[in-house]
Design goal:
mainly alpha, Multidrug-efflux Transporter Regulator, Chain: A, Domain 2, 151 residues, 3% strand, 2 strands
């Protein structure tokens, strides 16, 4: 199949397929005499594997390792698990960072009158040379929105 058909079948754009080939994530494909790429069903299967890996947020380097492990029938599952758990740690750190950013912005927005006056704590904080203050942690008894936590 040609690159357009492979893209449609795998859910990976033609541009990304060319990129993955250029960095060696997928092998160089067979070409016709006129220079068109020809993809096999196995190539499409690999592209789907890559797409699902990208959907889970794995880096290109991690995907290369996963593809290699996937193709190695003698692999140890612990190697795959280690990559997955390392990625979980990265995702959990990002989640905490995003939650902290959201909490800080909510705090600043609560302290902004949001009226016609020019005074705005949000702008003042963004313009400040000091690091942003950490928002107060919610009381264990109360949730993030100030409601009593379910028990």
């Amino acid at each position: 199949m040609n690159i357009g058909q492979a893209a449609a079948a795998s859910g990976v754009s033609s541009k990304m397929i060319r990129y993955y080939e250029s960095i060696g994530l997928i092998p160089k494909t067979v070409r016709t005499e006129s220079g068109y790429r020809v993809y096999s069903d196995q190539d499409v299967h690999t592209l789907r594997f890559i797409r699902r890996s990208r959907d889970l947020g794995f880096s290109v380097e991690q995907i290369a390792d996963l593809v290699s492990l996937w193709q190695d029938r003698e692999r140890a599952s612990k190697d795959v698990k280690a990559i997955a758990l390392e990625h979980v740690g990265v995702l959990e750190r990002k989640i905490r960072e995003l939650q902290e950013m959201a909490s800080t912005l909510k705090h600043l927005a609560r302290n902004c009158h949001g009226d016609a006056r020019p005074h705005c704590p949000i702008i003042e904080e963004l313009a400040s040379d000091d690091p942003a203050p950490a928002p107060a942690k919610p009381d264990a008894k109360f949730g993030a929105l100030g409601k009593v936590a379910a028990r």
